[in-house]
Design a protein that fits this description.
With 55 residues, the protein is of the alpha+beta class. The protein has one helix and two strands, in the order ββα.
Length: 55
């Protein structure tokens, strides 16, 4: 899935893990459905900051 997002937070746990939070603008119904279906799943995350993505 690919949605526009802003990285809004990161916290670190003692075991070396991290909690990373993002904020999105309003998603399309299809994007929202995809996010809801993936909730609590495990996968890979890529965050790409490019000039075309910055408003």
């Amino acid at each position: 899935m690919k949605v526009p997002a802003q990285l809004t937070g990161a916290s670190f746990s003692k075991d070396g893990g991290m909690r990373i939070t993002f904020r999105t603008n309003e998603l399309t119904p299809e994007q929202e459905k995809e996010v809801r279906e993936a909730f609590q799943d495990f996968g890979d995350l890529t965050f790409d900051v490019t000039a075309e993505n910055i408003n």
